[in-house]
Design goal:
Strand content: 25-35%
Subcellular location: Secreted; Synapse
Protein name: NOE3 protein
GO biological process, one term: signal transduction
Main location: secreted
CATH topology of one domain: Neuraminidase
Distance between the termini: 94 Å
CATH architecture of one domain: 6 Propeller
Radius of gyration: 38 Å
Organism: Certhia brachydactyla
Number of strands: 22
Length: 478
């Protein structure tokens, strides 16, 4: 190929690369493939998953601090603020604009050469047709040379047409870049007061305020139960699984106790993921069989009801020894006062934000539920409350912030029907439904660290989320 054709080929190659890159990259770069940027007075709304909202702290009519936050999903909450992305986008657009200007200056010069060549080729083509019509008058040799030159130039005609199209595309891109720069500059001016550094500082300050706000949270009242989330399917219809609410943040061990009697084996998993996959880390052979499914792990120890007795056992996972045992005075056992499903569920041990509890029934309280707060070291009863709710009519129960919540059944249609506050020694009837997805619940316990209910639902290990109503304490509160 001759030098002019080489030059033209290089220009066309560069044009094709630029055209292809811009047609594929520019839309995704500026968001045109998903969202249209407009020049209206308001910014295009960001979806909840991409942003966060904060409703400033205020006070209720009683003067108490109320803090409301709507936060994004944890994995979407990054420090890459929209303003920083906007600034980076503007820089890219400006760089692209400069590159296109350089290319445009270079191609305009070549474009004049192309137009001249095109005119020459069209004239040559017309002459060639005229000569071909009267080729009998020419010598065969001269005709063949001319024909070969023409054959060499003919493929350039569609290439020249493409070049002109690409040149127009460059002009269109220049205009689009100019318009886009104007829009982005307007957006930047509109949110210019909140550049990345300032937004980052605002987020840091907000986090500090929220931590201070969380420290003032008092215990909450149960308002709603959602779920369940099915974690695993394993074991028999009856059993218990749990984590330690007082464990350090990085300690996520799970304990698993299948069946409600004739078993002494506790299985341990290092994490929830190991529990799901079945990667068991350790087993413990307890010195006694347990009764029921209402055990609890609290501060590194397992608390359970010894089979065929009203004795509570405290077993240390670290030492593998029994640290304490005590008889729960007058407590019924061995299916005298179980929950509605039976299973030797007479004595229910549980923990919440306040401490360790035992829920059971006695003849002295006519088979109604008794709540006792226990000393976690000695198992001594610190204080007891007698309720009027029959233990045998309860499906399950759990403690949240010193209030006992009782369900009316272990079967489909169950709801939290009754609550008793140990703080005020008062009760109320409630109506908080929850979805008993697998039709038979034999264990339901609250975990204060996770703010969730752990349940054993007919051989399914599930979690329920709870919504609590909190009151923010202020310095004026006593």
């Amino acid at each position: 190929m001759s030098p002019p054709l080489l030059k033209l080929g290089a220009v066309l190659s560069t044009m094709a690369m630029i055209s292809n890159w811009m047609s594929q990259t520019l839309p995704s770069l500026v968001g045109l493939n998903t969202t249209r940027i407009t020049t209206s007075d308001t910014l295009t709304q960001i979806s909840p998953k991409e942003g966060w909202q904060v409703y400033s702290s205020a006070q209720d009519p009683d003067g108490r601090c109320i803090c409301t936050v709507v936060a994004p999903e944890q994995n979407l909450c990054s420090r890459d603020a929209k303003s920083r992305q906007l600034r980076q986008l503007l820089e890219k657009v400006q760089n692209m604009s400069q590159s296109i200007e350089v290319l445009n200056l270079r191609t305009q010069r070549d474009f004049q050469y192309v137009l001249k060549m095109e005119t020459q080729m069209k004239g040559l083509k017309a002459k060639f047709r005229q000569i071909e019509d009267d080729r009998k008058t020419l010598m065969t040799k001269h005709f063949q040379e001319l024909k070969e030159k023409m054959d060499e130039l003919l493929p350039l005609i569609p290439v020249l047409e493409q070049y002109k199209t690409d040149a127009k595309l460059i002009t269109q891109f220049k205009e689009e870049i100019r318009n886009l720069s104007t829009v982005l500059t307007g957006i930047q001016e509109e949110i210019g007061a909140y550049d990345y550094e300032e937004l980052h500082q605002r987020v840091v300050n907000l986090e500090t305020r929220l931590r201070d706000c969380m420290k003032k949270l008092t215990c909450g009242k149960l308002m709603k139960i959602t779920g369940p989330i099915t974690v695993k399917i394993s074991g028999t219809r009856f059993g218990a699984w749990m984590t330690d609410p007082l464990a350090p943040e990085k300690n996520n061990r799970v304990w698993y106790m299948d069946s409600y009697t004739n078993n002494k084996i506790v299985r341990e998993y290092k994490s929830m993921a190991d529990f799901v996959s079945g990667a068991e880390s350790r087993t413990y052979n307890l010195p006694f069989k347990w009764a029921g499914t209402n055990h609890v792990v609290y501060n590194g120890s397992l608390y359970f009801n010894k089979y065929q007795s009203n004795i509570i056992i405290k077993y240390s996972f670290d030492t593998g020894r029994v640290l304490a045992q005590r008889s729960l005075e007058y407590a019924g056992f061995h299916n005298v006062y179980p929950y509605t499903w039976g299973g030797f569920s007479d004595i229910d041990l549980m923990a919440d934000e306040i401490g360790l509890w035992a829920v059971y029934a006695t003849n002295q309280n006519a088979g109604n539920i008794v709540i006792s707060q226990l000393n976690q070291d000695t198992l001594e009863v610190l204080k007891s409350w007698s309720t009027g709710y029959p233990k045998r009519s309860a499906g399950e129960s759990f403690m949240i912030c010193g209030t006992l919540y009782v369900t009316n059944s272990h079967l489909t249609g169950a709801k939290v029907y009754y609550s008793y506050s140990t703080k005020t020694s008062t009760y109320e009837y409630t109506d908080i439904p929850f979805h008993n997805q697998y039709f038979h619940i034999s264990m339901l316990d609250y975990n204060a660290r996770d703010r969730a209910l752990y349940a054993w639902n007919n051989g399914h290990q599930v979690l329920f989320n709870v919504t609590l109503f909190h009151i923010i304490k202020t310095e004026d509160d006593t």
